[in-house]
Each structure stands twice: as structure tokens, then as C-alpha cells.
């Protein structure tokens, strides 16, 4: 039987509940004997209490160490690899955190990582996207080796809340590296919902025209209680910072509502939103590729249509 260890993502003392719960959903598809979550932090108790509430989690393991105050892959990976003894699978979310940490874990365990798992065929066979999401490949891993994988969170629903997993401290005898240390973190701050977990997202593209004009995107997002995103073209043009980029080289998201404003719909962008619930496209070019996947399309000048939409919202 499979036993799964999930690496919890957290920041500033709070669990990334959405990413972790979706990773749990992927693990449950294995029908495993048990699913445990590991929390590595300098003060893991509050984070562990959040993780313990996720349905399907049998136990939460905490590793408290001053070196775990910040998510440095070279520091976390040796501890995760040590804790993984006895587990058949080690999963992490395919977020910036997971893409940084999990390859290091795989290397230490001497296996090849399976990236962006979007479906589970069996305990050692998975489906994942390739070619910017234009094709899906089925991959197999050796049955006699542990599986290290990142989970494409946009492809999985979040596991429910209501669990009551046991929490226990884990003591690990691991030599931590001294050649890598935390120097600082530069991160954008916003009072708006998080882009990767928001139920609603409003994104702007090159058609918005300038950083100043991008205020219309922020304004509509605030009216909808939505997160703000952008195409790569808008980011490259300097309209918004790169942490807002949606697409193959940005964030892969799956909101219930996605509003694309002034975005033509390059394949790299469409890859990042293909799992969205309802897609609304607003563009003056009626032949823009975005309309091929949009559920609702509005052809016209965005600076005319957005005020009309906001007026209709009341």
C-alpha cells in the first residue's frame, strides 16, 4: 500500500491552505494507506494546526529548527529526504515553492521527479502536460523506488476542511548545509486576493496600453473582489510587476471566473487559464485567439466596455 508524505507550503506563519489541500486531493487519488503532512518551520505549531484540519490527512509531522525560518531549498530538502524514509510517495505543490524544493528532494533520493501531475492512473503512473499544455503525456516511475512529484494544483479540487489529524514533533538527525543561507526576500504586497488561489481573476494585456491605464483593471477587480493578473506582454511592457504574470512562464491558475481584458490569447497565456471555470474575453479584435476558448466574448473598446460593466454591477 502507498504511504504519502506531503510537504506543506507556508509563509509568514500561515499555511498555503489552497495549495496544500489540492495536493492532498491528488494524494487521495492513489487510495493510499495514509497521507501525512510535514511542516518545516522555526515555529510550526500554528501551521500544523491548520494542516491538521484538512480532510484525509492522518498525521502532521512538525520539524522545528531555526534554519527553517525561511524556505531555502538546500536547507529543507535534506530534512524532507530524511523524513521520507518509509514513504512510497513524496508530493509537493507545483508552485514557486514546490518547483524550488522538490527537485532537490528527488536528487537526494536518487530518483527523477514527476512534474505537474494532473491525473493519477495508478500508484506509479501519472498524466502531466507537455508542450505548453498542448499535449498530455502518461509517465511511469519505477515501482521499487519512491515517487517524488509536484502536483499541478490548477487540475485538482481542494480537499475539504473538518479533519482532526494528530500532530507530532519529528526529530531529524540531519547535517544542514552551511554554503547556502537566507539573505532576504523581495515580494510584492497587496490587499487583493492571492492570484493563485482566488476564485475570481481580472487580467490585463498589451491592449490596456500603459501602466497608468492598468488602473481600470485594478478598479474592476476591486468591484468583483478579484485578484489581478496580466499577460506576459503586459509584464514585458512594464505595465505591472512580473508576479502578476499568468501563463506558461507565469502562474497556472484555475479560478471560477477569469476576465481577460485586452489579451489576444497567445498559447502560452491560454496554458495558464485552461482550467478556469468561466472565461470572459474583452478585446477590440474579434479574431483574437482568446475568443476561441472564451465562454463569453465582448468585442469592443475596453475603455468603453469596462465602465458599462461596472455600471451594470450597480
What's the SSE blueprint?
Layout: E1 3-7, E2 10-11, E3 14-15, H1 17-28, E4 34-41, H2 45-51, E5 59-64, H3 73-83, E6 89-93, H4 96-109, E7 114-117, E8 119-122, E9 125-130, E10 135-140, E11 147-151, E12 166-169, E13 200-204, H5 215-224, E14 227-230, H6 232-236, E15 257-261, H7 267-271, E16 278-283, E17 296-299, H8 302-313
Parallel strand pairs: 1-4, 1-6, 4-5, 5-12, 6-11, 7-11, 13-14, 13-15, 15-16, 16-17
Antiparallel strand pairs: 2-3, 8-9, 9-10
Helix pairs in contact: 3-4
In short:
With 314 residues, the protein is of the alpha/beta class.
Notable characteristics:
ETF_alpha_N, Rossmann fold, 5-stranded parallel β-sheet, electron transfer activity, 24% helix, 314 residues, alpha/beta, 8 helices
Characterization of the model:
The protein is α/β, with parallel strands linked by helices. The chain folds into 2 domains: 3-169, Rossmann fold (3-Layer(aba) Sandwich), CATH 3.40.50.620; 200-313, Rossmann fold (3-Layer(aba) Sandwich). The chain contains 8 helices and 17 strands. The strands form 4 sheets. It has a 7-stranded parallel beta sheet with strand order 7-11-6-1-4-5-12, sandwiched between helices. The protein has a 5-stranded parallel beta sheet with strand order 14-13-15-16-17. Strands 8-9-10 form a 3-stranded antiparallel beta sheet, with no helix packed on it. Strand 15 (257-261), helix 7 and strand 16 (278-283) form a beta-alpha-beta unit. The N and C termini lie far apart (55 Å). The model has no long low-confidence stretch (mean pLDDT 93).
Amino acid at each position: 500500500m502507498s504511504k504519502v508524505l506531503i510537504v506543506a507550503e507556508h509563509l509568514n506563519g500561515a499555511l498555503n491552505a489552497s495549495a496544500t489541500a489540492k495536493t492532498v486531493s491528488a494524494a487521495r487519488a492513489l487510495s493510499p494507506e495514509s497521507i501525512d503532512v510535514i511542516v518545516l518551520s522555526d515555529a510550526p505549531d500554528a501551521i500544523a494546526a491548520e494542516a491538521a484540519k484538512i480532510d484525509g490527512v492522518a498525521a502532521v509531522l512538525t520539524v522545528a529548527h531555526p534554519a527553517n525560518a525561511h524556505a531555502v531549498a538546500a536547507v529543507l530538502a535534506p530534512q524532507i529526504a530524511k523524513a521520507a524514509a518509509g514513504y512510497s510517495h513524496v508530493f509537493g505543490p507545483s508552485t514557486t515553492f514546490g518547483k524550488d524544493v522538490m527537485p532537490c528532494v528527488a536528487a537526494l533520493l536518487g530518483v527523477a521527479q514527476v512534474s505537474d501531475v494532473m491525473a493519477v492512473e495508478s500508484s506509479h503512473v501519472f498524466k502531466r502536460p507537455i508542450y505548453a499544455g498542448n499535449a498530455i503525456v502518461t509517465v511511469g516511475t519505477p515501482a521499487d523506488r519512491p515517487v517524488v512529484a509536484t502536483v499541478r494544483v490548477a487540475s485538482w479540487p481542494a480537499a475539504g476542511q473538518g479533519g482532526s489529524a494528530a500532530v507530532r514533533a519529528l526529530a531529524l538527525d540531519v547535517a544542514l548545509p552551511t554554503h547556502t543561507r537566507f539573505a532576504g526576500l523581495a515580494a510584492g504586497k497587496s490587499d487583493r486576493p492571492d492570484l493563485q488561489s482566488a476564485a475570481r481573476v481580472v487580467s490585463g494585456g498589451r491592449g490596456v496600453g500603459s501602466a497608468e491605464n492598468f488602473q481600470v483593471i485594478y478598479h474592476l477587480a476591486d468591484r468583483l473582489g478579484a485578484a489581478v493578473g496580466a499577460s506576459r506582454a503586459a509584464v514585458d511592457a512594464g505595465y505591472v510587476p512580473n508576479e502578476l504574470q499568468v501563463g506558461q512562464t507565469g502562474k497556472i491558475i484555475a479560478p471560477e471566473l477569469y476576465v481577460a481584458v485586452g489579451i489576444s490569447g497567445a498559447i502560452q497565456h491560454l496554458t495558464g487559464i485552461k482550467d478556469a471555470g468561466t472565461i470572459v474575453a474583452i478585446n477590440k479584435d474579434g479574431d483574437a485567439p482568446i475568443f476561441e476558448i472564451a465562454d463569453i466574448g465582448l468585442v469592443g473598446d475596453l475603455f468603453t466596455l469596462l465602465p458599462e460593466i461596472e455600471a451594470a454591477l450597480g
